[in-house]
Amino acid sequence: MKKIFILGIAMFIIQDLSAQKLNRSQLPKAGPAPVIAFKDPSNFQLPNGITVLVVEDHKLPKVSASYLIDRGPSTEGDKAGVLSLMGSMLNEGTQNKTKLQFNQAVDLMGATVDLRSTGGSVSALTRYFEPAFMLMSEALRQPALHQDAFDKLKAQSLTGLKSNELNAQAISGRMVNALAYGKTHPMGEFVTQQSLESVTLDDIKKAYISAITPSRGILTIVGDIDPAAAKKIVMKALGDWKGVDLQLPELPLVSNPGATEIDVVDVKNAVQTEITAVSLVNLPMKSEDYHAVLLANQILGGGADAKLFRNLREKHGYTYGAYSRIGAGRFQSTFAANAAVRTEKTDSAIVEMLHEINIMRNLCRYLIFIF
């Protein structure tokens, strides 16, 4: 016990002397930036048009794959919600397996398989990757699309819509894009009870035929696998798959309003005000400004150390958090700053949010607050 006590005193003295040498008035100098080297993936194309990228990583005995159908945004019109519902239907079994049988086969391998309206993904140990990938392929190519599963998922979706009728955050999410792009634009369209109720199983089947296809498909495989083995598995699972040819849509550019527009929705039961300031932007990932803009957004509202958070929460205590985000890609996207604030502080929070945005740059064109 005496030795431990003496050792403890010695460590305390050493730490105290070490602390005295530090000049805490100066920020520590940054170390050298890490060198990051990315190898080019192996790639090949199937006869049906699927582009396959293979990235070898043999650190762990695991392989993951993701299939993405690059079809771009589309308008669903009075059937808004059909694509999302169709994507959910792909997880409800295949023509050869019930949902229970399919899930049991996946669980037996300790794998994960997920399908959606834009493709699917699979992850498994190396020794189980081929059968797991075959299951994903089966779900993509031969979904059951049965009436009972459709009725169940449609009812669940309608219940979800109903529960969000007076949810200020959900209302704000729909309003922001609808106001920015317009309700008839693919990016501004949103699901309503009326549009979802009009969807039938035949609509689901038509959506499947038009959306789930090898055309413009990109398959990425990462993990403990070599390109030759990957190609053999992919050819076996998807090589003879046929489907409709897709073309990227040409979307007209939407203009921001000439002056800041203010839109208000009065939600009687809301305990907080959802404030969103949004502006349309064009930021292709190949733009020279791409990384600079991402960095600027990180400084403005990327986290707890950013300007919006430090102002609205740390300084004024209006909210639990305030953030901003900016989209990028081949299609027009949005910059948005948002916070959920105490209702009585709505006006003050708006002033401070716009103040921080204007300091960085006046990107704000719309102002939407919901309370």
Description of the structure:
It is a single chain. The protein has 371 residues and is α+β, with helices and mostly antiparallel strands. It has two domains: 42-239, Metalloenzyme, LuxS/M16 peptidase-like (Cytochrome Bc1 Complex, Chain A, domain 1), CATH 3.30.830; 272-364, Metalloenzyme, LuxS/M16 peptidase-like (Cytochrome Bc1 Complex, Chain A, domain 1). The chain is 39% helix and 20% strand. It is built from twelve helices and eleven strands. The chain has helices at 2-21, 82-89, 99-108, 129-141, 147-163, 168-181, 193-197, 201-211, 227-238, 290-301, 307-315, 346-360; strands spanning 42-45, 51-56, 62-69, 112-116, 119-125, 217-223, 261-265, 272-281, 319-326, 333-342, 366-370. A six-stranded mixed β-sheet has the order 1-2-6-3-5-4. Strand 9 (319-326) and strand 10 (333-342) form a beta hairpin. The longest helix is centred in the first third of the chain and has 20 residues, at 2-21. It is globular and about 60 Å long. The N and C termini lie far apart (63 Å).
Summarize the structure.
This protein is an alpha+beta fold and 371 residues long.
